[in-house]
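Annex B. Sample input.
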Amino acid sequence: MVKIMVIGKYPHNKLNENIKAYMRTDKPAYPDFLKKVENWAAQITRGKQKIYAVYECPDDKVIESMAALAKRHIFYASVEGYTFKMELLAEADEAIKEFLKK
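Annex B, continued. Sample output.
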C-alpha cells in the first residue's frame, strides 16, 4: 500500500467558507480503492490555516489515486486562496533500507 499526503492551506479568514465546502455533498467522490487514513488541522502559519490528510491506496493505483485527490482538492479551490500539494510517503525504515542499497 502507498500513502499519499495532501497538505492544504487557506487564509484563516476563509475558515467558514472552507468548512462549507468540506460539508457539501456534491464533492467529487473518492474511488473505492482510495482510503482516507488521517485528517488533521494544524497551526496557522503566515496567516494561513493548514490541513494534512493522509490517504492509502494499492501500489498499482497511485496515478489514479493522485488524479482523484487532485480533482477533490481542486473542488476546495473554490475557496479563494486555497492551495494544496501532494506528497508520496514512505515508512522511514523502508526508505533507509532503500538508501543503503545504493
